[in-house]
């Protein structure tokens, strides 16, 4: 895993007339070893993450966020919604306890009232707008309504006939809720909160949605989706869903309410029934999404009006139920190590460490195990690589297979040759990546250690006078235990290499 992650934050385009576009993250807490609030905030600051969304209003978390300047969206959990929606006094008490007591030290900028209420808690639908109004009234009483917006996140599934977007409309059974809700958002200068998950759109389409279309990958013009009514061209699912929401609002005669996407992402791991929940796709989706937002691309219906988005999510949540993908939406493990490294060149201002020039040489996915073994033998022999870390009992022995061992040897050779062109090929079984393959106590040459110091692979290289001409048998991967354990995801300077 890479030690540094290239992350993001706000850029220069407007969502509405006076707000900058931004990328934020959701912070879930279904984690068996949840980092402390101070550890969470330290990670946010290290990665220059300036916008976060909490799923509650945890006091310790809000205190830890104080005096950081980080923009915070707090939430009214669904299990508190009925009480707040039925009692102005209950709403006022909630605001006093969870908002007023923390501002201005904690930069609370929005309140998400419930989450996907019309799908998850439909019996609360009739009081949803009341809950928003009661919360807003309490903010008005505290003179906080101008700095804190009030809204409620919706699942995109409340939009029916979402393609072509121009024909989309909200589920009409919810018109008694959506019409007053949109009136409230319009009158208070707030925005529609929408959760957009192209991953689910893709897997539920039975092959009708191409993977490239879901991942923001470039499409030839003849593969773009065209709205026959507007002749607008769509190159990705995200834009089509957002525009469907814009058209659904206009169907109800609301045309000036901006959209903020409160959740979007892609899982990095799934079970056997989820073959597209992999690191490559998660990295591709999130990197391209962030570039799309920060480049002020907008949507076909509203070009150059970027849709600010919160990535789902900061941490993998191992306690979540359901398929494996439910546990693996995070950008980081609970210990703060990135699940993968995102690279966002040509995305305007970038934040945190740019590791574009930090490259490694790894075994190519799907390479012939016999060819890998032959290349491993060469690297540890004529290639003059010190392969002693691969010995049993040494830091890089596990996992004991030819992919892992050859990856270490390939990279050590590549680093000792100063990353010279052609030194990461090994007859076609190796590839350059920007994802640090270090794991556990096994630090790969060229890696930055936890203290930020460079692990210098060249110091491990044997002298050129070394006459070792073969790879000792103990460096070999176990026969028959070949597994593809190294993710190949190379990114070129200036663009994501797919």
Automatic annotation (TrEMBL):
Signal sequence range: 1-17
Any one GO cellular component localisation term in the record: plasmodesma
GO biological processes: carbohydrate metabolic process; defense response
Domain X8: 359-444
Entry's EC annotation: 3.2.1.39
Pfam family name, one: Glyco_hydro_17
Location of the protein in the cell: Cell membrane
Membrane topology, record value: Lipid-anchor; GPI-anchor
Matches recorded under Gene3D superfamilies: 1.20.58.1040, Glycosidases
One Gene Ontology MF term: glucan endo-1,3-beta-D-glucosidase activity
Main location: membrane
Family as reported in the entry's similarity comment: Belongs to the glycosyl hydrolase 17 family.
PANTHER family given in the database record: GLUCAN ENDO-1,3-BETA-GLUCOSIDASE BG1-RELATED-RELATED (PTHR32227)
The name this protein goes by in its record: glucan endo-1,3-beta-D-glucosidase
Species whose genome carries this gene: Hibiscus trionum
């Amino acid at each position: 895993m890479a030690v540094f992650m290239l992350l993001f934050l706000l850029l220069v385009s407007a969502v509405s007339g006076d707000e900058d576009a931004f990328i934020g993250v959701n912070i879930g807490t279904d984690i068996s070893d949840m980092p402390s609030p101070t550890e969470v905030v330290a990670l946010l600051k290290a990665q220059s993450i300036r916008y976060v969304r909490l799923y509650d209003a945890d006091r310790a978390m809000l205190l830890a966020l104080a005096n950081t300047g980080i923009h915070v969206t707090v939430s009214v959990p669904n299990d508190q919604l009925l009480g707040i929606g039925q009692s102005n006094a209950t709403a006022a008490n909630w605001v006093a306890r969870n908002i007023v007591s923390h501002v201005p030290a904690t930069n609370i900028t929005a309140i998400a009232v419930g989450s996907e209420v019309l799908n998850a808690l439909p019996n609360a639908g009739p009081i949803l707008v009341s809950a928003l109004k009661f919360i807003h009234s309490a903010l008005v009483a505290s003179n906080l309504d101008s700095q804190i917006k009030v809204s409620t996140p919706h699942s995109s599934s409340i939009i029916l006939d979402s393609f072509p977007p121009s024909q989309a409309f909200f589920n009409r059974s919810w018109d008694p809720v959506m019409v007053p809700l949109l009136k409230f958002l319009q009158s208070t200068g707030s925005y529609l909160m929408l959760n957009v998950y192209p991953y689910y759109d893709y897997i539920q389409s039975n092959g009708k949605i191409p993977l490239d279309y879901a991942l923001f990958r470039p499409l030839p013009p003849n593969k773009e989706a065209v709205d026959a009514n507007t002749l607008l061209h769509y190159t990705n699912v995200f834009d089509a869903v957002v525009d469907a929401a814009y058209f659904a609002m206009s169907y109800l005669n609301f045309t000036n309410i901006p959209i903020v996407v409160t959740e979007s992402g892609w899982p990095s791991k799934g079970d056997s029934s989820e073959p597209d929940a992999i690191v490559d796709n998660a990295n591709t989706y999130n990197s391209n999404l962030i570039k799309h937002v920060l480049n002020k691309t907008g949507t076909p219906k509203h070009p150059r009006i970027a849709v600010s988005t919160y990535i789902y999510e900061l941490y993998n949540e191992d306690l979540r139920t359901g398929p494996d993908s439910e546990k693996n939406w995070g950008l980081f493990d609970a210990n703060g190590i990135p699940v993968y490294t995102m690279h966002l060149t040509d995305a305007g201002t970038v934040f945190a460490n740019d590791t574009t020039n930090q490259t490694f040489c790894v075994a190519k996915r799907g390479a012939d195990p016999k060819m890998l073994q032959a290349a491993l033998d060469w690297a540890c022999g004529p290639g003059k690589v010190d392969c002693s870390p691969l010995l049993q009992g040494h830091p890089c022995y596990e996992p004991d297979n030819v992919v892992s061992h050859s990856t270490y040897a390939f990279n050590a050779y590549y680093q000792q040759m100063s990353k010279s062109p052609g030194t990461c090929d090994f007859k076609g079984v190796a590839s350059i990546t920007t994802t640090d393959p270090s794991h556990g106590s096994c630090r790969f040459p060229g890696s930055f250690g936890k203290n930020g110091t460079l692990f210098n692979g060249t110091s491990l290289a044997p002298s050129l006078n070394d006459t070792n001409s073969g790879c000792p048998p103990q460096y070999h991967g176990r026969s028959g235990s070949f597994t593809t354990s190294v993710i190949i995801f190379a990114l070129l300077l200036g663009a994501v290499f797919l």
